[in-house]
Amino acid sequence: MVYVKSCLRRADNFMYIVKKNAAARKAFLVDLVNEENYQDLAEKENIDITGVLTTHHHYDHCGGNEGFRRQFPNIPIFGGDDRVPGMDRRVKHDEVTELADLKIKCLLTPCHTSGHVCYLVSNPSDESDTPVVFTGDTLFIAGCGRFFEGTATQMDTALNKILKPLPEDTLVYPGHEYTLANLKFAAFVEPHNPEVAAKLKWATEQRENGAFTVPSTIFEEKATNPFMRVIESESIQKRVDTDDPIKGMERLRSMKNQF
To answer: What are 16-39's pLDDT values in tens digits?
Structure first.
């Protein structure tokens, strides 16, 4: 199974260490949040870093890129936006590459930023292995990112046309620990959804015990994430006063901004 170590940085940012399995040495990193000593990190984790995946150019997701580049001048940094510092591998939508013996499919999801990329990671030597997707600030657990550089149409495409069709067991690793706030909003717009209530209870217990709420799955997001449920949920349609997925997406995001 693809091994992912979730590393909390700042108050609620995630950086991820990814390997083919727990015993593997070859690894890559996702979203270097901070300037830090990545050589020390490699020694501590007993890994050989083969690359860096950056979801988008916001500093809290690539603040460590330039320092990493100084420490590892020959290791590639992938991204989808020329504003990503240190990037030397700009990716395209549906481009497939390989790092640390893992297959990486690059999914461009512009909206939060115009160059946002999600990365779908799978084990090419075992198709039955559970895939994982790193969603940055596009898809959060039970939520989505703000539309800073895009539109509701773009976010609908990202969530419901690109990410929603992924295999339901795909593990979802977002850029932030925003789950509790997102689930409280989900419960507000869809108060009779038992899946939302159960996950809110679970997430509350996780955070009270100092544990993370990552990962989610595509299956769970389809059941609990209001931004992926406008078409399915009459309750949400009543809240946003429309059954149109684009208008619903726009109104949900506006409501969440004020929640």
So the answer is: 999 999 999 999 999 999 999 999
Residue 58 annotated in active site? yes
Q: Do residues 91 and 54 lie in contact, with contact meaning Cβ atoms separated by under 8 Å?
A: no
Known catalytic residue: 56? yes
Which position among 31, 81, 137, 156 bears the catalytic label?
137
Question: Can you tell me the distance from the alpha carbon of 198 to that of 211, in angstroms, rounded to the nearest whole number?
Answer: 17
User: Which listed residue (60, 101, 129, 243) is catalytic?
Assistant: 60
Digit-coded pLDDT (tens) for 170-188: 999 999 999 999 999 999 9
Domain regions of the chain by residue span? 3-258
Catalytic residue among 31, 112, 116, 156: 112
Could you tell me the CATH superfamily of domain 3-258?
Ribonuclease Z/Hydroxyacylglutathione hydrolase-like (3.60.15.10)
What type of residue sits at position 119?
A: Y
Catalytic residue among 31, 56, 116, 156: 56
192 is catalytic: no
Look at the pTM and tell me if it is higher than 0.90: yes
Helix or strand run (H / E) with residue 65: helix 65-71
Residue 137 designated active-site: yes
The residue type of 197 is: A
Residue 127: per-residue pLDDT = 82
Catalytic residue among 31, 57, 61, 156: 61
